[in-house]
Amino acid sequence: MRALQLPRILRFVLLVFALGIAGPALAQQYPNKPVRLIVPFPPGGSADVVARSVAQSMSQGLGQQVIVENKAGADGMIAGDAVKTAPPDGYTLFFATNTAMNAAPVLHKNITYDPVADFTPIGGVGVFGFFVFANSQLPVKTLAELFDHARANPGKLAYGSGNSTSIVATALLTQGAKVNATHVPYKGDAPMTLDLLAGRVQFAIATGTLLPHVKEGKLRMLATMLPTRSPLFPDVPTLPEAGASAMPMTPWAGLFGPAKLPQPVVERLARELTRALADPQVRETMEKLAFAPQGATPEQLGEMLKAQLATWRTAGKAAGLEAN
C-alpha cells in the first residue's frame, strides 16, 4: 500500500508555515550554550581589549557567556577560516577587522575565504585610533625630524607592524617621504610593542594600546591617523598637519558570523551588540584606546566592507605591495 501523498501546493503551504514559526522559536531558544568570539590577534592589543569588553557586555544580555578565543597570524586568515568553516548557528562569531576582511585579499594570493560571500554581517563596532610612535631614545620629536633622521641614516632604522593597517600605512608614509627603513612584521601590537620599547625597532604606526607608554615617557607620539586630533592627546597633530598625506583606508572593526546565519539570530546579536556599544564601561574602555565606537546595521556593515575592499586594493597598489 502506497503512502499517502500530499498535494504539492499543500506541502508548500505547510513548509511556509513551518518556517514562519521556526524563526521566532529559534530566536527564543538562542543562545542555550556559550558563544565563541574569534579574535584574529594575540591577547593585549586593541582588538583583543575591545573584543573582550564587548563580549563581557553581550554576555549579560544574551544570558550566556561570550568566550573570546585568540587565533592570531596570517593577517587574520587563520581566524577567518575558523569562522568560515563553523556551523552557521550563532555559536561561533568573528570579531573581524580590516586586516582579515580588506587587507588579506590584497596581501595574499591564496586566501581561503571570500570576505563578502563567506560571512554574515551582524553589526559595526567602531574605528581604531592609529598613531605614529617612536622610541624615546630616538633623537626626534616630530614626524619631520623622524624623516630627516631616517634619510640621514638610510637603511639603519627599522619599523614594526602589528596589523595590516600598520603595514600599508607605514609603506605609504615612508614611500611618500622617500625614507629607506627596514620592515619588521609582528602578529599583533602587543609583541611589537616589546621590541619598540627595547629599541629593536625604532618607530611604528600602531593602535592606542601603546598610549600608556607615551605617558610614562618611554615612547613619543609624532602624529595621528585620525581625521582630527585625539582628545586624549590634543597636542599631537594629524598626518596632514605634520606634513604627510592622510591615509585613505579606514581601520574598522565589525561583528560577523559564518555565511547563512539565520536572520533571527542575526537580529538578536545585532540588538545585543547595539546595547553593548551603549554600555558606559565598554565606551570607557574604548575611549582609553582612542577607539571610536560606531554602530552599523548588518546592511551598512556589508556595504562598508565592499567599499573598503576597493579602497584597500588601491592603497596596496599605491604602496607598492604585492600579494604573496
UniProtKB/TrEMBL annotation:
- Keyword match Phosphoprotein: no
Q: Which Pfam families match?
A: TctC (PF03401)
Q: Where is the signal peptide?
A: 1-27
Instruction: Give the source's domain of life in one word.
Output: Bacteria
For this protein, the record's InterPro entries field holds: BUG, Bug_dom1
Gene3D superfamilies recorded: Bordetella uptake gene, domain 1, Periplasmic binding protein-like II
> Keywords, A to Z?
Signal
* Similarity annotation: Belongs to the UPF0065 (bug) family.
State the name under which the record lists this protein: Tripartite tricarboxylate transporter substrate binding protein
